[in-house]
Amino acid sequence: MTVEARFCPRCGAGLRAKPPTTCAACGYALFVNARPTANLIVHDGHRFLALKRAMEPRAGLWETPGGFCDGWEDPATAAVREGREELGVEVTLGEFVGMYVGSYDYQGERLPVLDCFFLATLDGAQVRLDPRESADLAWFDLERPPPLAFETMDRALSDAASRLGR
């Protein structure tokens, strides 16, 4: 199910149309905006680090480290935080790769997301996965990734490979 508000979040009146719309009762303008995420393409020049998802959605598929930005959190700050949380190490943030509109299934809804990807390198420490989030890790060739959990990751990896001269 896609996110579609049927009632005004301010006054509770029924809405005449799906967002973007304006509540006829109180004038509140309602939009469905993409939620920002911050993602890392941890690389060693020709390979990237992928994590196997341990939880839904899309458990068992490979992904790049990342997650949702907290309210008012800059995506670059969120990317470093996500690296620390998911990999258990500090990462060195590199070049911004790009932003890609995608979707994320959560609580029975399909949410729009704006996935922000950054190149990154490890600080040399041993990666310690959070077992609640990741079941395994592996290094893959940037030009031959495995099936990935989210379509934006394929586009970002392709752009990253181009930037890294692959």
From TrEMBL:
Residues 33-161 form the Nudix hydrolase domain. It holds the Pfam family NUDIX. Its cofactor is Mg(2+). Keywords: Hydrolase. PANTHER family: GDP-MANNOSE MANNOSYL HYDROLASE, MUTT_NUDIX FAMILY PROTEIN. This is NUDIX domain-containing protein. It comes from Phytohabitans kaempferiae.
